[in-house]
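Re-run with default settings, no changes from the original entry. Doing this only to confirm the output is reproducible before filing.
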Amino acid sequence: MTEDDVLRNAFAMPINNPAFPPGPYRFVDREYLIISYRTDPDALRALIPAPLEFVEPVVNFEFINMPDSTGFGHYCESGQVIPVTLDGVAGGFVLSMYLNDHPPIAAGRELWGFPKKLGDPELRIHKDTLSGTLDYSDFRVATGTMGYKHRALDLAAAKKSLEAPAFLLKIIPHVDGTARICELVQYSLTEVNVKGAWTGPGALQLNAHALAPVAVLPVLEILSARHILADLTLPLGTVAYDYLNPAHRGKM
């Protein structure tokens, strides 16, 4: 393999058998349970990286089932998204993600900077309840429930919520352990087709865990619970802010 061969094939590791295929990535029948809750504003501010700006003390806890996704197959995911703004653009900062499939963990971390860790989330219907759970190291760290399809939501509003920008803090270390890449990445879902959206009574319980610290943002009040079913595309992202670029740091 020549130097030119390496550069021509340098998409992901390992070079001869990458852990994931090139994007973009299409998802069919992607299913969300999103429970929005009010939390401690001081705890929230401590976790939002500048230059992202605090909006209000709200967290969206998501349980997602993805039965049909390009290159990734069927997997489940769970995590926390915080409403923020960047230069006046409203979006969500993805604070944590736990999922049960290696290819999307590798792709998410390497391409966009998704904060993905291996966990055991699940989203399922149990009788009259939509139930989301998240286990980490055989310990239940989150349980979310919602009354199943109690009331339909406006599909256009659900589509708009899925298309809102998302922000990620991407950190890739150098071989000496210092940051080789440290940047905010921005992306928006595209080709969104919402097939259904519903709401109902919701509840969320978070348990403390040293390595899955979702409970550091305590549940003070449940604001809403939403169940969304959609087809959509996850495109590649753009660099919104580079912490290693002095010109960017001067804007803070």
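The CA atoms of residues 186 and 238 lie 5 Å apart. The chain has a mean pLDDT of 96.
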